């Protein structure tokens, strides 16, 4: 199997949790995809980086990140996977709100002003979190080239309506969660 198939197996085996849950969007579901069980796993995290780099290989960007917490391990996996191929790729973290102390930065890490960046998320249902990150990035002067997620739960239309290309490594159907 290749990286894409291997990561899919990790997601199905480790991240898909059955039972009633309320999503960050406020919607209810009979199952949950807890991708932190994958993005923070010693064998799966490197796959996340390689799969998302492959998914976005035709997009030009030199920094990656998104709204904390879902995007953080995704961006770091991509940073490390890129480093293993001698590609220069920085990562950043977008806070939900600006800090009231220190440097009072909303975006942590290397400066994104004037840079082409990729916004990422582990999974997205409505696009709310990743679009919040996109708004902060644009306010900071970044050129957001697109949005990429590991698992799409339906955010594609909202992201594309905001004028951004959208890609997901897996759909719910890929994971056997819908017909």
From TrEMBL:
Q: In which pathway does it act?
A: Pyrimidine metabolism; UMP biosynthesis via de novo pathway; UMP from orotate: step 1/2
Question: What's one GO BP annotation on this UniProt entry?
Answer: 'de novo' UMP biosynthetic process
The residues listed in the UniProt record as binding orotate, with positions renumbered to this chain, are 125, 153
Question: Per its Swiss-Prot or TrEMBL entry, what cofactor is needed?
Answer: Mg(2+)
- Reactions this protein catalyses: orotidine 5'-phosphate + diphosphate = orotate + 5-phospho-alpha-D-ribose 1-diphosphate
Q: Where does 5-phospho-alpha-D-ribose 1-diphosphate bind?
A: 95-96, 99, 101, 121-129
Pfam families in the record = Pribosyltran
Entry's Gene Ontology molecular function annotations = magnesium ion binding; orotate phosphoribosyltransferase activity
InterPro entries, sorted:
OPRT, Or_phspho_trans_dom, PRTase-like, PRTase_dom
Kindly report, in one word, the top-level EC class recorded for this enzyme. Answer: transferase
Cite the EC number: 2.4.2.10
Family annotation (CDD domains):
PRTases_typeI
List, for all copies, the residue spans of the domain called Phosphoribosyltransferase.
108-157
In which domain of life is the source organism classified? Bacteria
- Alphabetical keyword list: Glycosyltransferase, Magnesium, Pyrimidine biosynthesis, Transferase
Biological role stated in the UniProt entry: Catalyzes the transfer of a ribosyl phosphate group from 5-phosphoribose 1-diphosphate to orotate, leading to the formation of orotidine monophosphate (OMP).
Q: Describe the protein's quaternary organization and the partners it interacts with.
A: Homodimer.
Q: Please give the family membership noted in the entry.
A: Belongs to the purine/pyrimidine phosphoribosyltransferase family. PyrE subfamily.
Matching HAMAP family: PyrE
User: What protein name does the entry list?
Assistant: Orotate phosphoribosyltransferase
Gene (name only): pyrE
